[in-house]
Design a protein that fits this description.
With 100 residues, the protein is an alpha+beta fold. Helix content is 17%, strand content 35%.
Length: 100
């Protein structure tokens, strides 16, 4: 299983992750907010995205970042949203999708 070995806040809107396979990726606050997997952003029964991408400001920043157990991160964004739990697997997937 590929896991993060280092997570760094590069700025108030960018995090960088160094992975156990030596890959290094970057993710941005607006990108993560638009991909939030919580029940407020995604219908938990259908999996359909509820959050409108256009409602997320391009200048959105991180207010706080916390590790959740040994498997995920939680972010508080500058719009006060803080209910999403981003598993490391999901963060890696988002990173890889961002590179294509």
């Amino acid at each position: 299983m590929i896991e993060p070995i280092q997570i760094s806040e590069e700025s108030d809107s960018k995090i960088s992750i160094k992975w156990s396979d030596d890959a290094e990726t970057s993710l941005f606050a607006p990108q993560l907010r638009r991909a939030c997997p919580c029940a407020s952003c995604v219908n938990e029964w259908t999996g359909e995205k509820i959050l409108k991408d256009s409602s997320v400001a391009e200048d959105l920043t991180f207010s706080e970042m916390q590790i959740v157990g040994r498997y995920a991160l939680n972010f508080r964004f500058s719009d006060e949203h803080d209910t999403g739990i981003f598993t490391f697997k999901y963060l890696r997937q988002l990173s890889e999708n961002n590179q294509h």
